Amino acid sequence: MKRSRWRRTVRTTGNASTRFTVESQALMYEMPDDDVLKYYDEYSRTWTINPYEFGVDYDKDITLYVPTIERDANIKAWLISEYQENEKKKFDPVFIKFLPWLTPKIAKDVNTAKMQIRKAEMTFKSWDTEMFSFMNDVIKNIAVTPQTNISAICPACGEEVVTKLRFPDGVGALFNVVNRRSKFGSK
Are 24 and 47 in a shared domain? Predict the structure, then answer.
């Protein structure tokens, strides 16, 4: 299957123009601050944070796991399964926001996933207001988010050129996977 690329040409100083191609190396991200990165273990892809270091009365380290597409898909499958069992069941959207960070893996098997998610929910519910506020701030500060800018090197001067990137559905639309069935649209 052939992938299409989005391209944009921008005039820079003088008569030179720069062509931008949306590829992973052209995208720009907001990264965590350097003082926060010391809590990240690149090998295990985890964040280990001691809330007590930050003045929060919590007696153990918290390990956060970098969310993955597979984990998100398995959480979605669990949600669908739970909803199919009981259409009136309510889900805590705040817990669902934290869930991908709280577990190293969510099993594809729904019964195993239920046990893993129940354990994460118990941890989540053990937080008092101070701990919840702290964890909310931590996740905001460690999340890597795409910016609305892309960069390229100007062929004339060799300098980095940055331009705004705008899509009708936002930058996040670049990361959505389209399968063959959804190409036909929806009713």
Answer: no
Query: Which residues sit opposite 122 in a β-bridge?
Result: none
Within a domain: 185: no
CA–CA separation, 123 and 58 (whole Å)? 12
Q: Decide if 163 is inside a domain.
A: yes
C-alpha 162 chain-centroid distance: 23
Confirm if 20 and 166 have CB atoms less than 8 A apart: no
Domain that holds residue 43: 32-143
Q: Are residues 4 and 61 in the same domain?
A: no
Going residue by residue through the chain (187 aa), what tens digit of pLDDT does each one get? 344 444 445 555 556 666 656 655 555 556 666 777 888 888 888 889 899 988 998 888 999 998 888 888 888 888 888 888 888 888 889 999 999 999 988 888 888 988 999 999 999 999 999 999 999 988 888 876 555 666 667 766 777 776 666 655 555 555 554 444 444 444 4
Domain identity same for 79 and 163: no
Alpha-carbon distance of 172 to 45, in angstroms, equals 22
Q: Supply the angle between the helices 93-102 and 69-85 in degrees, to the nearest 10.
A: 140
CA-to-CA distance for 117 and 115, rounded, in angstroms?
A: 5
Indicate whether 14 and 73 sit together in one domain: no
Name the pTM for this structure.
0.62
